[in-house]
Amino acid sequence: MGVLAKSKTLVLECTINNVEALPENNLGDRVRKLRVSNNITINDLSKYCNISTDTISNIEHNRTTPNISTINKISQALNTSNAYLLGVDKWPESTSGEIIYKYRMIAGLSQRQLAEKCNLHYSTIKDYENDKISNPDTLKIIYNQISYDKK
């Protein structure tokens, strides 16, 4: 004979009086700060994004790293940019791979989506991001698709 377990979810809401004091050290902090400053509950954000409340909570507590599709949904719901949520201003641009990854994420593209825009196989984008290959003509095409202007 099986045992049935019942569970209940308890939701606690509290008001944060000084939103400006909330940290912005990582993606989870920035999501939480924007959500709280816009008076949006985790439940509301999950509905706006069509993402579970557990996923939102896990992102805010840095227990999971969302994929680019989820980042796009959250940035749109919170009326912000991927660049802000990801904190890309601190990301390096020392190699072509770092540049491609950074600007692909800002553009909200998966490796597969960028590859399709460039008429490349998605593994090619992966190889470029890992600095395994570098062809100047292909780099120009990729840079153009991610709106990177080489300085």
Shape: elongated
CATH topology of the largest domain: 434 Repressor (Amino-terminal Domain)
The CATH architecture of the largest domain comes to: Orthogonal Bundle
Q: How does the helix and strand content classify structurally?
A: mainly alpha
Count, helices: 9
Largest sheet data: none
Average pLDDT score: 91
Oligomer: single chain
The CATH class of the largest domain turns out to be: Mainly Alpha
Radius of gyration: 19 Å
Reading the helices and strands in chain order gives: HHHHHHHHH
- In what range is the share of β-strand residues? under 5%
Count of strand segments? 0
Q: Residue share in helices?
A: 40-55%
Number of domains: 2
Give a description of the structure:
The chain is an all-alpha fold. The longest helix is centred in the C-terminal third of the chain and has 12 residues, at 96-107. Helix 7 (111-118) crosses helix 8 (122-129). The protein has nine helices and no strands. The mean pLDDT is 91. It folds into two domains: 25-81, lambda repressor-like DNA-binding domains (434 Repressor (Amino-terminal Domain), Orthogonal Bundle), CATH 1.10.260.40; 91-145, Orthogonal Bundle (434 Repressor (Amino-terminal Domain)).
Could you write a compact summary of the structure shown?
The protein has 151 residues and is mostly helical. The protein is built from nine helices and no strands. It is elongated and about 60 Å long.
